[in-house]
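stage 2 :: seqdesign
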């Protein structure tokens, strides 16, 4: 069985800025689907965020007391994926699929670190992540993913209107 890293984000309908009050499951802990993961303070009230799937909670991405907004990255869960078999592209579709920008970009020479592992786990091309000081860091990757998730949430909101 293969495993995939899943992002757990703050609810899309989070009406006000929230603050993480308490993590209810420690990093490294096994989780079931639909169990309380984190307690948030939202506009003076408490709100629970549930786990979207079963797996292992690999990381808390927001510290206790840290503010967050709708769709911000909260945590990552490593979950089993069902075996789907190998998907091969028909030769006539190869050019279209290989012309995707992320497939064409040359990867910069970046020293091996856990930022690259996080990029790989999240499916983010390291070349797309703006980095401070020329060296890619885990914080750069997290900041980039949060910014992308906020952009997607804003686009979803615009499309829903």
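stage 2 :: out
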């Amino acid at each position: 069985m293969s495993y995939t890293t899943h992002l757990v984000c703050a609810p899309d309908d989070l009406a006000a800025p929230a603050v993480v009050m308490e993590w209810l499951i420690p990093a490294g802990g096994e989780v079931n689907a639909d169990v309380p993961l984190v307690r948030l303070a939202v506009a003076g009230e408490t709100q629970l965020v549930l786990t979207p799937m079963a797996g292992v909670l690999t990381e808390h991405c927001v510290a206790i007391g840290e503010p967050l907004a709708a769709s911000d990255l909260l945590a990552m869960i490593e979950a089993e994926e069902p075996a789907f078999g190998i998907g091969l592209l028909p030769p006539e579709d190869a050019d279209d699929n290989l012309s995707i920008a992320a497939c064409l970009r040359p990867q910069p020479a970046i020293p091996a670190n856990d930022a690259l592992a996080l990029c790989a786990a999240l499916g983010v091309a390291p070349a797309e992540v703006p980095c401070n000081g020329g060296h890619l860091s885990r914080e750069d990757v997290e900041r980039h993913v949060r910014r992308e998730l906020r952009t997607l949430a804003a686009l979803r909101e615009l499309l829903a209107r």
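stage 3 :: structure notes
- DSSP finds four helices and eight strands in the chain.
- The first helix runs from residue 91 to 98.
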